């Protein structure tokens, strides 16, 4: 059997894990809101129309922050449409997805839902078709205590206390030609700067995220970050990154190696942020908000067909990727990559939360269930709290189309405040189990607290309403832990969580 080794020390610290890296995203898109988190009349709906079965799954994951209301949708959105009496809210064409938005679910409903989900809101303002004035007005509406036009309107609409939205996105993917009101890097940088400045004048306690490139493959990637940060560095706190992967050629080893691309993407953006910092002689560091990430490709054709056949429809079943087992492995590796960059990645949002490229699926009028990718997401959110550690991993490697020397074992670890250590590991090998030998002597006495294993013999296996547990975690065989040395067999193609408790 092949072997891999891992050495850990409590002093090999990457940084404190910001729990917001386990965030997610709810866009007015497809059935994410309508038929997803909100479905009045459903047998599971509560008095506000929120699906209790969905809320229970969201709480199981532990989602600390939820980005809203888009996405591409936000670039044509008038936030004022989403407040006040429901029957007076306008119906509008949404040019992002060629659907109709009823505005039945709006800002107050979202804040109410967040409270029930135990999540903080992350609100995106429209810098596509609108600008700094609309942006500062919504901050005043949401966060100003009272005594002004917008804050008193909030009170009239039922919220006597401020909504307290602390994290704001300055638009969405503004480099993309598909975006309503897309801009050059300079135009956007100027607008982001003025918007951030005015929003912070209204409420200095907020943090704001400037749009980075919509992906590393954009021709303007790099130059966009440099140019726009040059304009807004002093007034922004984070730069956004977005990345989705797919396996359309059915190349599993190549697909599972894509987290190496993610790693390079993060490193590059960190370098750009720091080069602008250096050039400006700034003390402040701009960190990263990876506010859209996932696997996304299964539903592309179906989305085109549904959209074409139902132009201007509502709550259409679009972007409904059904995730298989190999997708869960890559999602696990992507989460490992964020942990490895915990010093700079402070926010990350799995896109999206329900139905639309999501870990949770529902049937309108029917059940709710966990997709395969739900599990690594939940495990890392539940167990990787505290300090991210940098393990020294030595693994056998393989080559694939785009990469050489891909480690079969992709692993990282977290040290909890109570002294327990959790190792997260993916075995990318299609053929072989691998013996992982971990040197944990630096932590004093530990005992094996559990081995959670996600494996399926069929990489294309999926979960469904009828068979929701087809791909689900089981208890792994664990291993031996003697004198601080752990020895554990990681099955071929598997996601593993190894919990080691402090004695
Ligand atoms: O998450 C789906 C879409 O992907 C978002 O609306 C957009 O920001 C990205 O291109």
TrEMBL record:
Membrane-spanning segments? none
Q: Does the keyword Signal apply?
A: no
- Pathway annotation from the record: Glycan metabolism
Limits of the Alpha-L-arabinofuranosidase C-terminal domain:
291-494
Q: Which residues form a coiled coil?
A: none
Q: Which InterPro entries match?
A: Alpha-L-AF_C (IPR010720), ASD1_cat (IPR055235), GH (IPR017853), Glyco_hydro_b (IPR013780)
Q: Which domain of life is it from?
A: Bacteria
One GO MF annotation is: alpha-L-arabinofuranosidase activity
What keyword terms does UniProt attach to this protein? Carbohydrate metabolism, Glycosidase, Hydrolase
An example GO biological process term is: polysaccharide catabolic process
So what EC number does this one have? 3.2.1.55
| Record's catalysed reaction(s) | Hydrolysis of terminal non-reducing alpha-L-arabinofuranoside residues in alpha-L-arabinosides
Which Pfam families does the record associate with it?
A: Alpha-L-AF_C, ASD1_dom
Task: Give the record's subunit note.
Answer: Homohexamer; trimer of dimers.
Family of the protein in this entry = Belongs to the glycosyl hydrolase 51 family.
Its recorded name reads non-reducing end alpha-L-arabinofuranosidase
Q: Which organism is it from?
A: Candidatus Alectryocaccomicrobium excrementavium
């Amino acid at each position: 059997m092949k072997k891999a080794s891992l050495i850990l020390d409590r002093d090999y610290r990457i940084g404190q894990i910001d729990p917001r890296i386990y965030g997610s995203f709810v866009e007015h898109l497809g059935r994410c809101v309508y038929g997803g988190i909100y479905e009045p009349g459903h047998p599971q709906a509560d008095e506000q129309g929120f699906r209790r079965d969905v809320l229970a799954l969201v709480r199981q994951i532990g989602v600390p922050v939820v980005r809203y209301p888009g996405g591409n949708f936000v670039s044509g959105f008038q936030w004022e449409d989403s407040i006040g009496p429901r029957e007076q809210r306008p119906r509008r064409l949404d040019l992002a997805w060629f659907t109709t938005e009823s505005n039945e679910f709006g800002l107050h409903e979202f804040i109410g839902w967040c409270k029930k989900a135990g999540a903080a809101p992350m609100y995106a303002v429209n810098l596509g078709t609108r600008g700094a004035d609309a942006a500062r007005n919504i901050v005043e509406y949401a966060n100003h205590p009272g005594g002004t036009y917008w804050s008193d309107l909030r009170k009239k609409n039922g919220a006597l206390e401020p909504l307290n939205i602390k994290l704001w996105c300055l638009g969405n993917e503004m480099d993309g030609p598909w975006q309503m009101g897309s801009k050059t890097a300079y135009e956007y940088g100027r607008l982001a700067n003025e918007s951030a400045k005015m929003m912070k004048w209204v409420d200095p306690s907020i943090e704001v995220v400037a749009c980075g490139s919509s992906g590393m493959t954009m021709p303007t990637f790099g130059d966009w970050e440099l140019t726009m940060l040059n304009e807004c560095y002093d007034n922004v706190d984070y730069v956004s990154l977005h990345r989705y992967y797919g396996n359309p050629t059915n190349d599993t080893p190549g697909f599972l190696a894509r987290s190496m691309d993610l790693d390079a993407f993060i490193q590059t953006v960190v370098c750009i942020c720091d080069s602008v910092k250096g050039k400006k002689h700034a003390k402040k560091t701009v960190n990263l908000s990876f506010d859209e990430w996932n696997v996304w490709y299964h539903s592309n054709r179906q989305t085109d067909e549904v959209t074409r056949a139902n132009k201007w429809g509502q709550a259409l079943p679009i972007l409904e990727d059904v995730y298989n087992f190999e997708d869960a492995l890559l999602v696990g590796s992507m989460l490992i990559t964020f942990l490895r960059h915990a010093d700079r990645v402070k926010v990350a949002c799995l896109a999206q939360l329900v139905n639309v490229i999501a870990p949770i699926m529902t049937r309108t009028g029917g059940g709710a269930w966990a997709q395969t990718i739900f599990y690594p997401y939940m495990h890392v959110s539940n167990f990787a709290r505290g300090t991210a550690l940098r393990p020294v991993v030595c693994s056998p490697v393989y080559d694939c189309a785009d990469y050489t020397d891909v480690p079969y074992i992709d692993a990282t670890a977290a040290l909890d405040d109570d002294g327990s250590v959790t190792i997260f590991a993916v075995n990318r090998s299609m053929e072989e189990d691998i013996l992982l030998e971990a040197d944990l002597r630096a932590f004093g006495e530990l005992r094996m607290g559990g081995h959670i294993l996600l494996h399926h013999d069929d990489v294309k296996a999926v979960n469904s309403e009828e068979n929701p547990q087809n791909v689900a975690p089981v208890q792994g065989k664990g291993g031996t832990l003697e004198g601080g040395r752990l020895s554990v067999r990681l099955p071929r193609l598997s996601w593993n969580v190894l919990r080691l408790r402090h004695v």
